Amino acid sequence: MGRTLQIKRGTTAKLAEYAGPFGEPTFDTDRGIIVIQNETAGGIPQGVITQADLDEQTAALGNEIWVNAQNIQQLKLT
């Protein structure tokens, strides 16, 4: 008999609140991607990166870097 691997899963909003142990895989049911937990809320999304993902991460960095799906447009050095 085969073994079953069950992975924690949840919506994007629920996973944004979850801070799992380092290296734990979770599944984002809204985006259909794996998120690797790193002991901070939200973890690290894997797979396809959208412009919205890039914009969100840029905002999280205090808008210090602007990116698009093709290249880095501008970098502020402080």
Helix-strand layout with pairing:
Elements: E1 8-10, H1 12-17, E2 25-28, E3 33-36, E4 44-45, H2 51-60, E5 65-67, E6 72-75
What's this, in brief?
The protein has 78 residues and is of the alpha+beta class. It is built from two helices and six strands, in the order E-H-E-E-E-H-E-E.
Describe the structure.
The C terminus is likely disordered. It is elongated and about 50 Å long. By secondary structure, it is of the alpha+beta class. The chain has two helices and six strands; from the N terminus they run βαβββαββ. Strands 1-2-3-4 form a four-stranded mixed β-sheet. A two-stranded antiparallel ribbon has the order 5-6.
Notable traits:
elongated, 26% strand, four-stranded mixed β-sheet, two-stranded antiparallel sheet, 78 residues, disordered C terminus, alpha+beta, single chain
